[in-house]
Design brief:
The complex is a heterodimer of chains A (369) and B (815).
Chain A: H1 4-10, H2 63-69, H3 75-91, H4 94-108, H5 118-131, H6 136-140, H7 143-154, H8 159-175, H9 177-181, H10 186-195, H11 207-218, E1 232-234, E2 239-241, H12 246-252, H13 278-298, H14 305-320, H15 331-338, H16 340-348, H17 354-359, H18 361-365
Chain B: H1 2-18, H2 41-50, H3 56-75, H4 81-97, H5 102-119, H6 125-140, H7 146-156, H8 162-183, H9 186-200, H10 205-220, H11 227-235, H12 242-253, H13 260-277, H14 281-289, H15 295-321, H16 325-329, H17 334-347, H18 353-370, H19 376-382, H20 392-402, H21 409-423, H22 430-446, H23 453-460, H24 468-484, E1 507-509, E2 512-513, H25 533-546, H26 561-567, H27 574-584, H28 589-608, H29 610-630, H30 636-640, H31 651-661, H32 666-682, H33 684-690, H34 698-715, H35 722-725, H36 736-746, H37 768-774, H38 777-780, H39 793-807
The chains are: A mainly alpha (369), B mainly alpha (815).
Chain lengths: 369, 815
């Protein structure tokens, strides 16, 4: 048996075992290699300080973080993020205008999110409302994206999503009529929605109001001021005769953003409203006719009386004052035909139909066409 | 403002009711026609497919959704996951139904095209893929112009997305297959071909590469197996991007190990036969599904699956390994091509070595196959011919492949001298010397006139070299020249001359051609005509290996070449005759070239369809038989007197019998040819004398190998193989790694063998005790030690007594 002492004594004279193919380590060299490891500091644990530019939510998250969380796959996290955003923006309403560039893409995407629970959806709608407190100028840059999302959600297969989209659209139409008017896709898309079998039924809250808002947007004043300036450009000399004041163009219409050119974005020049185009008006009449007739026939309590009358009046006015009716053959007759169901409804409804009748007098009388 | 407040009130009310708001049938105005399928696009697709007319509205709604989404995509190319999912779903839905609504389908396809073209690179990878799949679906339903689609695909190839590229290439070649097999639309194939050819010249290298891959694939799979494609691929050898060059070069060169090529073909033939007999994967799975599941059956199924997938893989790999003899042969101007390739090789110094070697290989192969004159190529090779050079065996091989009869002997002589000086000297390692001698042998077998007496004698002196490899290589060189030109050899090396074979004379006298009543050489076949071909082969192999020719090299009589040539048999297939002529008088070039062309044509046919070839062979056989029948009367007496014991004395009779009694198979002819070649090499007498002796030695092996090689050269493209050059008589001792690798390879499915411990599985490596610890306690409760042991009364008494004694403080054990 080898004692401890003996072992220690023999330490220096140990027999080295040799193996084929293995190199012996030299005992006289010093190992000079250095091993270094990277030290990583977790920035996650950094203390966040609330400042004027960088407010925190109740849970201590910044606006930026909340917007990131809006893209999270878990709907619970998204819900919390919505609430956080709502809270920050209500306490600091001035931020809405400033941070719109960050907020719109991250929030508006969720208008077509089918995974939300109804309460979350309500929260989202409220958040939209808060976003829509932004001024017209600041919103003008983002309205295209906003509307694109909303219009897409209007065609979604899920009913709740469409409903939310309709409400959002209503808010937008109400708040930014001038911006909405310039959006080229809005009119056909909304008409499409109204014509589809998947739209909200007439007596549900929101639909009629949205339609009225929609009509308000496009039913602009008839007296259009067209200022014409004549310019002569001589290409040979490269000179221009006459004076043009670009500033004046924008002053005329204070709502128009100076960067909003019809060519660049999908917005249309606002010189022509769809109401002044016979095709568009005819489409609108076609789509609205079943709604109006169902209002007349089924609205027993008379809550929707005023709105119904308004709708009829709008169509009648639009048809009568059509400036471009030469574009479509038999325009008036076609409008008249499209409203036939309304006429039948009015004649069926004996009692309170007086107001309707007066509103639709053109429709009734102009049967001579 | 009043209005807006009203709306807010409304929505607040909404909010209050909002909580329990059910997904009520929101479209109460019109009862939903498919409430069930509302959220399920797949179900809706099924319903719409049954009655597309009446469900048009639903389709249009989805279509509107798609249109809106596309508008959004234009505004905002990046989207998060959930949205892309819904988009993919709707694209799938629309593409499935598109054929019912052509007008919308057009718009759908156009918008997909536009988006892919405008922002193809910026799109999400999954969305892009789903778009491409939808377009492929539309194309398969003939709703699209395939050319437009292909152009878009070639544009998309430049997007950095590996999966997408793979998909695009696969879909293009799938489309080609469809057009080729199902529709037989030659016009469309031509149009696609033109498009691909124009894309190969595209300035963007990735597009060019994609087009090149499509062309190569189509050539291999015979969609476009024509000279035009081959030449377009050949042009890509001079592309500025090395990767494209290499792909083209490899296409022409085929597999890396040239030797494996033939074996591969054989294997695949056998495989396809075997596969016909065996079950497919589907069959295996269905039969497994319908039986009781036992562990053994499970194992068997697993094994069968593995085998099937392995075979599939092999088949796929084998296809790419084919040497493209046809592609090389269909080059429009091989001389110019080689000059250009060689020019690129000489001028550009920046090539990687591997690329250089590939270019050398292709040059050599084209020179060899087309018999070109690119004389500076040989002197270019000189600089690489050093034993220390990387891949020198390959370069030696290419040197040998580039040599043919039309090259001036002095050029070859120089080359040989360089090899001899650099490799075959005593200061080099035996391996280098062996390789050098082998290479010289290969070169000289191609052009025997380059050999000088002096050099040959020098080299033949190595036959007594102490290293076996070197000496055997030298002997094989001697053996070659014994057949080709014995006069150059030293007298003692020349071997015994062949006796005149009276039987094989072509003419009996002036203008009296001898008519054969047997296939000459048929006597070596076995007697039993009824036996299977396989049986013959085995027997013959035995016979051949029994031949003992130990002292051939000591014979010293001249072989009479000219006589032999004239004497050559008529009965054997003409191909054999051609080869022999080629061996012995290579000077009459014209005839030979014609012959070679014929040969190559035959090979092509073989590649194309083997059936036809078989038929031809059978016809040949029939011809032989007819000859035989003509002469039946003459040989009657011979036939009657044929006796089993007189086989050795009377080969003629046996041959007659063999060739009359049976239909000679391909294998039989092969054996006959091998025998006759051997006879040429060592002389008939000796061959016969040595038959039946059960010993083999080195010389005999050389002869065997030589005959085999000659045989192989005749049957394929006639180029040398790497194994010829790297041939070592004595195998090198394996290193430990190699041995271990061999062992591991042998152990692959050892687990299935009986009588060995298992290596894989759930319980391997644990004892039963260990296993029992993992079991649920209720299972092993009754087996707990002691509980189940029945002790005898006496034992119980004993232990009780011990216990009591210990308690009382006394020592137990003393009774």
């Amino acid at each position: 048996m080898v004692t401890k002492k003996k072992a220690r004594k023999n330490e220096d004279f140990k027999k080295v075992k040799l193996k084929v193919g293995k190199k012996l380590k030299k005992t006289t060299t010093t190992d000079t290699t250095i091993k270094a490891k990277r030290v990583v500091l977790a920035s996650q644990l950094e203390e966040k300080v609330e400042t004027d530019e960088n407010p925190l939510s109740f849970r201590g998250l910044t606006l930026n973080e909340l917007c990131k969380q809006m893209g999270h796959f878990n709907s619970k996290v998204k819900m919390n993020a919505i609430q956080g955003l709502k809270q920050i923006l209500t306490s600091r309403p001035d931020l809405v205008n400033v941070q719109l560039r960050l907020l719109v893409p991250s929030v508006v995407v969720h208008v077509s999110d089918a995974s939300f629970e109804p309460p979350t959806r309500q929260n989202l709608l409220n958040l939209f409302k808060i976003l829509c407190t932004a001024s017209v100028q600041s919103m003008s840059a983002h309205i295209t994206l906003f509307l694109a999302h909303v219009l897409r959600a209007l065609t979604n297969i899920v009913t709740e999503v469409r409903h939310l989209a309709l409400n959002a659209l209503s808010i937008l139409l109400d708040r930014y009529p001038s911006l909405c008017r310039n959006h080229a896709d809005l009119f056909p898309c909304f008409i499409n929605y109204l014509g589809s079998s998947k739209r909200l039924s007439w007596h549900k809250a929101g639909l009629i109001d949205t339609i009225l808002n929609f009509i308000n947007v496009y039913d602009m004043n008839r007296e259009r001021k067209m200022e014409t300036t004549e310019l002569k450009i001589n290409f040979e000399d490269g000179k221009m005769e006459g004076e043009v004041n670009t500033k004046k163009v924008f002053i005329q219409n204070p709502d128009a953003s100076p960067f909003d050119f019809g060519v660049v974005s999908s917005s249309k020049s606002h010189a022509v409203s769809p109401f002044e185009l016979p095709d568009a008006l005819l489409n609108l009449a076609n789509v609205l006719a079943p709604i109006i007739s169902s209002i007349i026939l089924e609205d027993a309590g008379g809550q929707f009386m005023v709105q119904g009358v308004k709708l009829i009046e709008t169509i009648v006015r639009g048809a009568e004052n059509q400036p471009n009716d030469f574009l479509l053959k038999d325009f008036r007759k076609q409008v008249y035909d499209s409203m036939s169901s309304v006429r039948i409804a009015i004649s069926k409804r004996q009692g309170k139909s007086d107001r309707f009748r007066t509103a639709a007098s053109w429709l009734v009388t102009s049967s001579d066409h | 403002m009043g209005k807006s407040s009203k709306i807010e009130k409304k929505s607040k009310k909404d909010g209050k009711n909002g909580g329990p708001k059910a997904p009520e049938g929101a479209n109460s105005g019109k009862a939903s026609r498919f409430t069930m399928s509302e959220r399920n696009l797949g179900l809706m697709q099924e319903i719409i497919r049954k009655d597309p007319e009446s469900y048009k509205e639903e389709f249009l709604e989805q279509f509107n959704y798609f249109v809106q989404t596309m508008k959004l995509l234009h505004l905002q190319p990046e989207q998060n996951r959930q949205e892309t999912q819904s988009l993919q779903d709707s694209v799938l839905f629309l593409s499935g139904l598109a054929k019912h609504y052509p007008k919308e389908a057009k718009q759908f396809a156009d918008s997909l095209f536009e988006l892919l073209r405008v922002q193809g690179a910026g799109l999400d990878a999954d969305v892009r893929m789903s778009f491409c799949k939808a377009l492929v679906l539309l194309r398969n339903q003939d709703m699209l112009d395939p050319i437009v689609l292909l152009e878009t695909f070639f544009e998309l190839v430049k997007v950095e997305d590996k999966v997408l590229r793979k998909f695009l290439l696969a879909s293009i070649s799938a489309h080609l297959k469809r057009v080729y097999h199902k529709k037989k639309d030659v016009k469309m194939l031509g149009r696609i071909q033109n498009l691909c050819f124009s894309k190969i010249k595209d300035s963007r290298s990735i597009v060019a590469r994609a087009a090149q891959l499509v062309c190569i694939d189509a050539f291999r799979r015979k969609f476009w197996r024509d000279a035009r494609t081959a030449n377009v691929i050949a042009d890509a050898c001079f592309h500025k991007v090395p990767k494209i060059q290499v792909t083209s070069l490899k296409f022409f060169l085929g597999s890396e190990n040239d030797n494996g090529e033939e074996d591969d073909d054989d294997d695949s033939a056998i495989d396809s036969d075997a596969e016909d007999n065996k079950k497919t994967l589907k069959e295996v799975m269905t039969s497994f599904r319908n039986v009781k599941k036992t562990r053994k059956r499970e194992k068997n199924v697993e094994r069968a699956k593995k085998m099937i997938s392995k075979k599939k893989k092999q088949k796929k790999e084998g296809r790419s390994k084919e040497c493209n003899l046809m592609a090389i042969q269909s080059l429009y101007d091989p001389q110019e091509f080689t000059d250009k390739l060689f020019g690129a090789l000489e001028s550009k110094k920046m090539d990687k070595f591997e690329v250089k070697v590939l270019k050398i290989a292709l040059c050599a192969r084209i020179i060899g196959i087309h018999r070109l004159h690119t004389l500076s190529f040989y002197s270019y090779l000189h600089r690489f011919l050093q034993p220390k050079q990387r891949d020198v065996t390959r370069i030696l091989l290419y040197a040998a492949q580039a040599c043919h009869e039309m090259v001036p002997p002095d050029t070859i002589e120089q080359l040989i001298r360089v090899i001899a000086n650099n490799f075959v000297t005593d200061r080099n390692s035996p391996e280098a010397m062996t390789v050098g001698i082998n290479a010289i042998r290969e070169i000289l077998s191609n052009c025997p006139f380059a050999a000088t007496e002096e050099l040959l004698r020098d080299l033949s002196e190595y036959k007594t070299y102490k290293n076996k490899n070197v000496s055997m290589a030298a002997r094989s060189l001697i053996t070659l020249f014994r057949a080709v030109n014995p006069k150059l050899l030293a007298r003692k090396d020349r071997g015994k001359p062949q006796e005149k074979d009276e039987d094989e004379k072509e003419y009996n006298g002036f203008a009296r051609p001898k008519v054969h009543d047997f296939v000459s050489g048929a006597e070596i076949l076995d007697d039993d005509g009824d036996e299977e071909g396989q049986g013959h082969l085995d027997d013959n192999d035995d016979d051949e290996s029994d031949v003992d020719v130990s002292d051939v090299d000591t014979d010293d009589v001249d072989t009479d070449d000219e006589e032999e040539d004239v004497d050559d048999d008529e009965g054997a297939p003409s191909a054999k005759k051609r080869r022999v002529e080629q061996l012995q008088n290579p000077e009459d070039d014209e005839e030979e070239e014609v012959d070679d062309e014929e040969e190559e044509e035959e090979e092509d046919e073989e590649e194309e369809e083997e059936d036809v070839d078989d038929e031809e062979e059978e016809e040949e056989d029939v011809d032989d038989e007819e000859d035989v029948e003509d002469e039946e009367e003459d040989s009657e007496d011979v036939k009657s007197s044929a006796a089993p014991e007189s086989v050795e004395e009377d080969p003629k009779k046996k041959a007659t019998k063999n060739s009359m009694d049976r239909i000679l198979t391909q294998e039989d002819f092969k054996n006959i040819r091998a025998y006759q070649l051997k006879k040429q090499l060592i002389g008939e007498k000796r061959l016969k004398k040595q038959m039946g002796k059960g010993r083999s030695n080195a010389d005999e092996r050389i002869v065997e190998e030589m005959t085999e090689k000659l045989e192989m050269k005749r049957s394929t493209d006639g180029l040398a193989r790497l194994s010829d050059i790297e041939h070592f008589y004595k195998k090198k001792r394996q290193t430990k790694e190699e041995r271990m690798a061999d062992i591991a390879a042998g152990r692959a499915d050892e687990d299935y063998k009986f009588g060995r411990p298992k290596k894989n599985g759930a319980h391997v490596g644990r004892t039963n005790e260990q296993n029992s610890k993992k079991k649920v306690f209720a299972m092993v409760k009754n087996k707990v030690r002691g509980r189940n042991r029945q002790r005898s009364f006496r034992d119980q008494q004993k232990s009780l007594r011990n216990y009591l004694m210990r308690q009382s403080g006394r020592k137990p054990g003393n009774v």
